[in-house]
């Protein structure tokens, strides 16, 4: 291990374990004080500013998580490697940090995501297995026994964009707090040497019609052997596909507890589902006739009235054991992944190895993409945009691939040889 780059030290805990820094000042841990190459006063004041900035995003766990990741990497680099306080950071330091992130030292790269802190004897202690960067293998390669290799770590374009975006927001905050005078990220005139510009829309990853069909068939076939497990699975995938929900919109959290009463009928007899999505934004999703059938099926299985009654507060996706709704997005991922795996086996048995291989690489979020992609073929894009919670029609347009298909069709008979 190079002495110039010490072992990483976790800094910011989970929201549930962070005290309000506006009431209880943030204190550096003993490990942070030992690793820091800045003065104790600089470390203290910088940590306080970071904690206040992150805590202001407590209403959106997803945003908090992504901001914490970028701020933690940056402050680790500043305090523990470069010996820089936040007020000393300039444009050239941001560029050097980005280059560091593109090729971090191997002992800063982990093979899996783990918690930053663990409970030990009633206290929160740093997890020695945690790393600021993580290299991952695809689901397919993992099943084939391939392990994560730190030497194969790469920083994606989306990750690079996140660095610039989060740090720019952070330094604007520091300007408002009168801690710095200029935003060093904004001073970088040639971000293009780091970020690639893409010509044309990037294709959306989605399930094929055959793959989606087999996912539904696999669940239906499994229902008789374990109705409690697979009726719930069928309802979950129906919500993800039929209402374009994100996983975070199905799981209970501090900011959002989805329940059956979120399905409501208006004065015209139309059904809507109210959810809270990215940025803590509430939206109403139109509920199709087939989604109502899926809702009736699940509620009937649970012994409830076919459709929700006004004011009903039963959890949308109840736990199999215990009271309340599912609180873990990881559990929902596991449920859907099991359904994908069953469908993969069915496709292989039917002699469709290519479809099976493609489905093996799919993630749960593909269900949302697939539902949007299917509906935008025949619904007005503005309607799909509002149901999906897209910030603009330009995002929804990415799901329209008619022009892309036509472009490929016109290219199919291009000649290379004159003969």
Task: Give the name of the CATH superfamily of the largest domain.
Answer: Intergrase catalytic core
Shape: globular
Using the coordinates shown, work out and report the CATH topology of the largest domain.
hpI Integrase, Chain A
The count of β-strands is 7
For the report, how would you describe the main beta sheet?
Answer: 3 strands, antiparallel
So, CATH architecture of the largest domain?
A: Orthogonal Bundle
Q: Give the CA-CA distance, first to last residue.
A: 61 Å
Secondary structure class reads mainly alpha
Q: What's the SSE pattern? A: HHHHEEEEHHHHEEEHHHHHHH
| Oligomeric composition of the shown chains | single chain
Low-confidence stretches: none
What portion of residues belong to β-strands?
Answer: 5-15%
Query: In the CATH hierarchy, what is the class of the largest domain?
Result: Mainly Alpha
What strand line-up does the widest sheet have?
5-6-7
Radius of gyration over all CA atoms, rounded: 24 Å
Question: Can I get a quick summary?
Answer:
The chain is mainly alpha-helical. It has 15 helices and 7 strands.
Topology overview:
Elements: H1 30-35, H2 40-55, H3 61-82, H4 91-102, E1 109-110, E2 117-120, E3 123-126, E4 133-134, H5 139-143, H6 157-176, H7 209-222, H8 227-242, E5 263-265, E6 271-276, E7 282-286, H9 289-301, H10 329-349, H11 353-360, H12 365-375, H13 381-388, H14 393-397, H15 402-411
Parallel strand pairs: 1-4
Antiparallel strand pairs: 2-3, 5-6, 6-7
Helix pairs in contact: 2-3, 3-6, 7-8, 7-10, 8-9, 8-12, 10-11
